[in-house]
Every structure is written in structure tokens, then in C-alpha cells.
Design a protein that fits this description.
The complex is a heterodimer. By secondary structure, chain A is α/β, with parallel strands linked by helices. Chain A has a single domain, classed as TIM Barrel. Chain A is about 40% helix and about 15% strand. Chain A has twelve helices and eight strands. The longest helix of chain A has 17 residues. By secondary structure, chain B is of the alpha/beta class. Chain B is built from eight helices and nine strands. In chain B, helix 6 links the parallel strand 4 and strand 5. The longest helix of chain B has 17 residues. Classes of the chains: A alpha/beta, B alpha/beta. The interface between A and B is medium-sized, with 36 and 30 residues.
Amino acid sequence: MTNTGSNIERILDTGGFVVTSECGPPRGADAGVVRKKGELLRGVVDAVNVTDNQTSVVRMSSLSACVILKEMGFDPILQMVCRDRNRIALQSDLLGAAALGINNVLCLSGDHQKFGDHPQAKNVFDIDSIQLIQAVRRMRDEGKFIGGEEIKGKPVLFIGAAANPFADPFEIRAPRLGKKVKAGCEFIQTQCIYNLERFERWMAMVRDRGLHEKCAILAGVTPFKSVGMAKYMKNQVPGMDVPDEMIERMKGVPKEKQTEEGIKICVETIQRLREIPGVRGIHIMAIEWEDRVSEIAKAAGLLPRPQLP
Amino acid sequence: MIVANRKPLEEILEMIRPYKKILLLGCNECVTVCAAGGQREVGVLASELRLSRAKDGNEIEIREHTLERQCDHEYIDQIRPFVGDYEIVLSMACGAGVQYVAETCRSKLVVPAVDTTFLGVTMEQGVWSERCQGCGNCILDKTGGICPIARCAKSLLNGPCGGSSGGKCEIDKEVDCGWQLIIDRLQELGQMDRYEEIIPVKDWTTARDGGPRKRMREDLRL
């Protein structure tokens, strides 16, 4: 047992079911925004992801927002993308994060800068997400930098990554998870799940390889705010799979009731996901909609969260 | 080959605005094959420049000349007898050619008429696409002969990312996902077991990151 101090690890160790959500830092230096979002998640989640310049839009740094949330009593998950920093900067920030009491890291490649507010930027991608997982694992367990030098004061972090069962080619999505597990990944948060049938097929492949026993799968969900959002997710977001019947279901209710319908779909999805063998938790990504996470968690029977000493 | 694009006429006109005597220099290598700066393009650009300047009542004298290569002294030396007669050299070669002409003709201003883009192939008449980034450490043996550095928008060595959709890259529906191509090829070759190997962090010292590169073969030196 590693014993990183991570709430996710502690709950998994006792066989519990994990609930995480996310907090997107603001496009400014106002710590109050982070605190306000944090308040909405109090008592609702075991750990909070803090995104790293998501969709390549400049925001307050993930590590800074993690520290603000940590001071509020949360267990933040530091998201780290390989787009903006080389191996020197990534390792430096990992040491800094551990020194500031952060317990979790989520290793990601990162969206291409084309989608953001600085499409003219030069990208880095010195290493990729799988190599980052390997690096964190080696830093923590062997006390070695990528370059081979010894670390004085190992960064003790619980190591996570993302998986998208809905991206192509489908047949390599479980083998790709296998590579992440081989690299040292301990938990996975998936892309938003709308196509449960495909997710179940992916989970069957994951179980066939025994990956769910080496790495905890937290299933990702995102509520629709409207039929417009559902259509946008279906047509505009690469690697997102929204079945037509979901769009039809959202269309079938009057506009003023669509929000409630979106939440209802999300709650039902969570209930189905909980029944799938190998799913060890739920990751609720309510993008700029943190005030509804508590309601979703409650309706899905995920509350109260375990009290950890 | 090195693939280039001719710059827009307005940009070229701006570069040569103060000058009346111009040596327009084409190159018979890569930029000829990719139709950016060969003899034909030299003729077309010269006509456009003459017309445009004449319209403004600011006529220019252009000498059109295409060298076998602009990346070899041996050929650049051929312009020595007459380069002094011109105020500026407008080179249609790749960035290497422009710089080598400038190094050779130190007293002349040498400016580019093309934007050098990538190392690529001719896909069909009029279509070229990128294949190599010259990283100096080839791994094509591991990836089914398709380069993830050049053909994945994120240069992922252990791809594909979560943005691969229907064989296309998240940045553009017209761009193939390099990792989809790699996987298709590994499947055809019966080498899918290779996919499961983690490719370790890359040593970029052989690429541009290691500083300007130079290659020397002692056995060939005079």
C-alpha cells in the first residue's frame, strides 16, 4: 500500500465507492471564485479535480487553485497536461505540488491549443500522458527523476489518468488503458458517458484484461443543461458519443423543463453505472454548473460521503 | 523533399519596394517539384512583379535566373559575375537556399519569396503533405512506418489521444489521425503486440532542441 494521504486511495482501500467532481479555475486572479465553487462541493465529493488550462484557454494555474481548495479542506486532484510544459517544468511542479500537500495528480496529454484563446502558441508535448504517468511513478516509488538523478524528498502522489472509451479506434481503447496501467496509473476518470452500451462493452474488455483490479475506474458523467448543449456535445466535441435517443429525449420536453430532464438523465446514468462490475466511483463534470453537483449526487444516492479521519 | 509555398504578391512587393534592379533567383530542386520556386514560378512571379510595378508607374528591372541548387556553393558561385549589377536578390529557394545565397553574397540583401513549410511527399498533382520533422532519431521501425512525431498533432509517442474520431484528428476533420494510421498499419502487418509496448520518453538532443545541427563525414572531406 502506498498511503499517499489521498481520499480516493483511502476510500478504495476500504472497498468504498468514490465520488469526484471538478472545479475549473477562473480566467483571472480572483481566489474568491475558486472558494465560491469549492463551497458548492463541500460534503458532496471525496476529491476535486482542478483543470489545467482546459480547452487551451488561459486560466489561473491548476496548482494555485489546488492550494486554495486544500486550504478549504478539500483533497484536490492536480490535473497536468503535457501541452504547455516540458519534462523539466512538469517534474518541478510535481515536487512543488507534493510540498504544498497535494495528494493526487491526473496525467493528461492536453487539448490542442487550436481550441483555445491562443491558437498561435507553440506547443510543447516533450513527453506524453503515458510517459508522464511513468515519470510520476518513478519519482514517487524509486525517487528518481526522468534524467536518472536521485530525488531528495520523494513526491508522494496518488496517480490518475483519463480514458475515453468513445474515441476511435475503439478496439485499442482497452489496450491503451492497459498501457496506462503498465505505466503505473492507479485511478482512471473516463470521458462523459452517454452511450452506456458502448461503455459496457469497453468495461467488458477492461475486465477481460483484469485492468479494473489494478486501477480504479471512475465513470465520468456530465448533465445536459439543454437540448442545444446535447447537440453541441454530439456534433462539436471530438471523441464524444451522444446517442440520438438522448437528443430525442431532451427534445421531447418543453424548454423550461430541459434542465431538470438533463439532471434526471444524469442521475439515471449514474445509477446504471454503479451496477457495472469494475466501476469504483463516479466523476461528475458539471461544467460551470457546480451548484447542481450536490443535487445530482443526492438524487443518485451518493450522499452522505464517508467521513475520513 | 522540402515543401514550400510562394508568399503572397503583396508581401513580396513590400519587401522589394525601394529597389529597381532585382535578381530573381529560382532553384531547380525541391521547390521546383512542389511548384513553389522553380524556373516556371520564377517566370510567373517576374511577370506579376513587372505588371504590378508598371501599374504604379514604378518600373523595375528583373533578371530571371534559376540555379541547379541554392544549397551548394558550386552553383551559387555561378551568379558571382553578375550579382553585383542588382540591388537585391529575391530568392525562391527554401530557407536553406535563401540563407546560403546570403552567406555567399555578403554585400547583397537577399530576401525570401517563399515560405518553407515541411519535409513531405507529393500525394497527387498539386497536393503535398508532411511526413518527417527531421528529429534525428528515427523510430519508424516501431510505428508501422508512420511517424507519430510528424503526423500526430501532439507528437504523441503512445497515442492516440481521446480526440481521435472516425479516423480524423481533433484539430481538423480533414486531417488524418496519425495514430489511427499507425494502428491500421500495425494490424495489416500483424504487429499489434507492438502497440502495447510503451515507447519511452524521447531524447530530443538529436532534434532542433539540441541546437543547430551539423553532420560531418571525415572520409569524404578533401
